[in-house]
Amino acid sequence: MDDEKQPLIQNTSVRETTADEILRDSSFCLSYIKLVPVTLLLHFAGGVGYYATIQWIREYVKETSGCLANTSFNKTENGNCIGNGSLGNIDPDSHIEQETAKWIMYTSLATAIPASFSSALLCSFSDSIGRNFLFVVVACSTLVRLTVCSLSMYYKWNLLWIVLAAGLDGLTGSVHTSVSAGILFLVDITRPGRHRTIALSVFDGLLMFCSTISGIMSGFLIKHAGFFISTTVCTGLALFGLLVIVWFLPETNINIDNSKSSSLCLKVWAATLYCNCREWKYIRRPFVLITVCYFFQNLAVSHRGSIEILYQLGKPFCWTPEMIGLFSAARSTGQGLIGVLSIIPIKKGLSEINVALISAVFNTGSYILEGLATTTLELFLVPVFAAFGFVAAPMLKSLLSSLTPASNQGTLVAILLTVETVTEIASSYGLNQLYYMSAPYFPGVVFLVLAGMASLAAIFEIVFKLTQNINYGKDEEKTRTDILEKKK
C-alpha cells in the first residue's frame, strides 16, 4: 500500500511551473489573440461552404431528376417546395428529399471514414512535429475542398466530385483536426483545472460564433450571389487563413523533440501500456463512464445541422436559404452566448458533471420539440431549449483532461477524436437512412431518436454521479488523488 501513496503524477510541479512561465510570457499571452482570427477564417469558410454544398446538392437533384421539367417550379413564399407536380407516381418533394439525403450521406461518410484514422494520427504526431503543422494541414485541405466544390458548382459537374472533395478533406481529418489543433493549442498554454475549463469553453463558444456568422451569411450570399460566388469567397478566406497561420501563428509546443517521433504502431502500443498500468486501475471506471457520456453526447449533436437543413427544406416548412441561415444563426448564437457567459458563474456553484447533466436534459427537450413541430414559430422555439445544450462537451472534456496525466494528453485527444469520428460515421449513415425512409410519412421521427440519444447521455451522467462521490475539476492532482483514496 505504500507505493499507492506516492503521487500519481511525479512531474506535476514541473508541469505547473512550465505553464506559469508560458502564461507570464507576453508572446504566449498574445497567442490567445492570434488563435481567434485563424479560427474565424477557417471555420467561417468551412461553415459557409458546408451550408452552400448541402443546398447545392438539393438544387442539383431538383434540376437533374426531371421534377422541374414536369412542373411550373417557382420560388414563392412557399420556398423550395415544388407543390402539386408529380414524378410518375412519386411525390416530387419526397423524391427530392430522399435523393438529397442519400447524397449528403455519401458526402458525410466520405469525410468521416478517412477522418477516423487520419485525425488521431496527425494529432498524435503533433507532439513531435508541432501544433502549427495541424493548422497548416487543415487550411490546405479546406482550400482544396472548397476549390473543387466551386468548380463543381460553376460547371455543374456530377455530385461525385462533391463526394471526392469531401474524401480529400477527410484524409486530413477535416474539422476534427481543426478543432483538436485549437484544443491542443490551449492545453499547451493553460493550467489543468478551472483555467483550462474556461479556456476550452471560450474556444467552443468561438466555434459557435463562427457557426452563427456562417448561418447568417450563407443565406444572404446564396440568395444574392449564388452558390458559385459564395463558395469562391470561402475559398479566398481559406487561402488568407493559411497565410495568417504561416506568418503569424506561434508554435505553442515548446517541448518539440523530433527524435521522439514514432510510428503509429508504437503510439498505439504506448496507449495500451498506459491503459494497463497501475495508475489506470484507479481511474478506469470514472474514465470509461465519462467517455460513454461523451459518446452519446456527440451522437446526439454531430449530424444535427445537415438533418435540420433537410427537414427545413421539405414540407411543411419549405424554407428559403435565408430562413435556414437565420435559424442556424439563432441556435448557434444561443448556444455560444450561454456557454461563454454562463460558464464562470455556473462553475462556482456546480461541478462539471452537474452542468453536463443539465445540458443533456435541455438537449433532450429541444429535440422533442423539433421533432413534433409543425409551424415556423414552434421550430424557432428550438434554439431557446437548445441554448444550454452546448455546455456539456467542454465539461466532459475538462473532466477527462483532469483524469489524464500531462504526459498522456495527446493520447486523450486521440481517444476523443476516435469517439467523435465513430459517432459521426454512425450518425451520418443512420440518421440519413432513417430520414430517407421516414420523409414521406413522418420526417420528425429522426429528432425523436436524437432525443433518445441525449437522454442516454443524461442517464450515464446520473450513474457517474451515483458511483463517484468525488469533487472533480478542482485541479489535476487533487482529482486523481481523490480517486486513489476512494479506491483504497
What does this 3D model show about the protein?
- The chain is an all-alpha fold.
- The chain has one domain (19-72, 86-487): MFS general substrate transporter like domains (Growth Hormone, Chain: A, Up-down Bundle).
- Helices cover 77% and strands 0% of the residues.
- The chain is built from 18 helices and no strands.
- The protein has helices at 12-24, 26-64, 92-129, 132-155, 160-170, 174-188, 194-248, 264-275, 278-301, 304-313, 321-349, 352-372, 376-380, 382-386, 392-403, 409-438, 445-467, 476-487.
- Helix 2 packs across helix 7 (194-248), helix 7 packs across helix 15 (392-403) and helix 9 (278-301) runs parallel beside helix 16.
- The longest helix is centred in the middle third of the chain and has 55 residues, at 194-248.
- The protein is globular and about 60 Å long.
The name of the CATH superfamily reads MFS general substrate transporter like domains
CATH domain topology: Growth Hormone, Chain: A
Integer-rounded radius of gyration:
23 Å
Low-confidence stretches: 1-28, 69-78, 84-88, 259-263, 470-478
Per-chain topology:
Elements: H1 12-24, H2 26-64, H3 92-129, H4 132-155, H5 160-170, H6 174-188, H7 194-248, H8 264-275, H9 278-301, H10 304-313, H11 321-349, H12 352-372, H13 376-380, H14 382-386, H15 392-403, H16 409-438, H17 445-467, H18 476-487
